[in-house]
Amino acid sequence: MLTLARGSATLLALSAVLAAGPALAQGKPLPPPATDAMPPVELTISLKDGKPVCDPAELKLPADTNVALKIVSSADAPVTITAPGQFENGLVLHADGDLVHVASEKGYTVKQNGKGTLRLRTMKAGQEEYACTSTRNADAPFKGKLVLSAPAN
User: Fold this and answer.
1) 58: which strand partners?
2) CA distance 129 to 27
3) For 104-128, how does the pLDDT look when each residue is reduced to its tens digit (9 = 90+)?
4) How far apart are CA 35 and CA 152, in angstroms?
5) How many C-beta neighbours within 10 Å does residue 60 have?
6) Is residue 45 helix, strand or coil?
7) pLDDT at residue 124 in the model
8) Cα(113)–Cα(5) distance, rounded to whole angstroms?
9) 3-state secondary structure (DSSP) of residue 101
């Protein structure tokens, strides 16, 4: 017969709360995506005259949808991709490869000559500026347009 010592039940309950803590800290779950399709999109990064260039300059994605963004960099320096609100923890579903989440949650750094896939939930329909910034030329970022439009049904 198993006998719990005094306080063991409290310790077990505390352990369960602590184990669930990170999941609770992420906030409320996202609503279902606008569509079940997860379209693959590719973003390439290169350096021209020592400055980053992202292609496409106008990144078109469906709004409120899960997207797999494949990122391929031929830049010989790390480059950080930013877009207001898009790379916050609540919208990032998964990242793999040579991608590192920026501590401010405003973007992802792609390692030198790196590649990876960023799965994310896009924001609501609208337009935002996105940027690619080299660690060498932080004062001269490439600026593009992130266009989020309602997905086709």
Assistant:
1) 145
2) 26
3) 778 999 999 999 999 999 999 999 9
4) 9
5) 11
6) strand
7) 93
8) 57
9) strand
Gyration radius from the chain CA atoms: 20
- Amino acid sitting at position 86: Q
CA–CA gap between residue 81 and residue 131 (Å, rounded): 6
Q: For residue 12, give every residue at least 6 positions away whose Cβ sits within 8 Å of its Cβ, in sequence order, or none.
A: none
One-letter amino acid of 131 = A
Contacts 24+ apart (CB under 8 A), 54-59: 54/81, 54/130, 54/132, 54/142, 54/144, 56/144, 57/144, 57/145, 58/144, 58/145, 58/147, 59/130, 59/144, 59/145, 59/146, 59/147
Q: How confident is the model at residue 141 (pLDDT cuts 50, 70, 90)?
A: very high
Length of the chain: 153
> CA-to-CA distance for 66 and 75, rounded, in angstroms?
27
Tokens of 10: 């409290």
Residue written as tokens 């106008």?
58
Place of tokens 């949808």: 65
